[in-house]
Amino acid sequence: MTNLDDAYRLTAGVPSTETYRRLRTEADLSDKAPEAVALALSNTWHGVVLHHEEEPIGMGRIIGDGGTAFQIVDIRVLPAHQGRGLGRRIMAALTEELERRAPATAYVSLIADGPARFLYERFSFADTAEHDSIGMYRVMGA
């Protein structure tokens, strides 16, 4: 049996626009316009791409102002590779970079969909509702 560490490789950086869009749609998420993706990826503070046999199968990014506010976004692992602790590897790499480079007073947020909250809790993220605040969103054009 192959060791997971031998089969999977995590690299710093962001995927190509095409790969980003493929990872989203194959993970049953909405597609994004290529122009929007290219702009977003170029403004990433830190990102990682997870490869299986040289094929990108997962990703994660940190966006923000570089000083006071950061958000973890785009945590994705293709369905065929889920359940192997790979999302945890992506989160570990992102939080390690935040701990290394972000100021101690920085606020780091994320949106936890469904059971993903249990993964994020392992990295000391807490529900904002406990502090009388709630996460809110707006999709432009909707």
Protein described:
A five-stranded mixed sheet has the order 1-2-3-4-5, sandwiched between helices. The chain is α+β, with helices and mostly antiparallel strands and 142 residues long. The protein has helices at residues 4-7, 17-26, 34-42, 86-101, 116-121; strands at 8-12, 46-52, 55-64, 69-77, 107-110. It has one domain (4-131): Aminopeptidase. The model has no long low-confidence stretch (mean pLDDT 90). It is built from five helices and five strands; from the N terminus they run αβααβββαβα. Helix content is 32%, strand content 25%.
Q: What fold name stands as the CATH topology? A: Aminopeptidase
User: Which outline best applies?
Assistant: globular
> Main β-sheet, in a few words?
5 strands, mixed
Tally of strands: 5
State the order of secondary-structure elements, H for helix, E for strand: HEHHEEEHEH
Number of domains: 1
Strand composition percent: 15-25%
The CATH first-level class comes to Alpha Beta
Helix content: 25-40%
| Secondary-structure class | alpha+beta
Mean pLDDT: 90
Question: Over the alpha carbons, how many angstroms does the gyration radius reach?
Answer: 15 Å
Can you tell me the CATH superfamily? Answer: Gcn5-related N-acetyltransferase (GNAT)
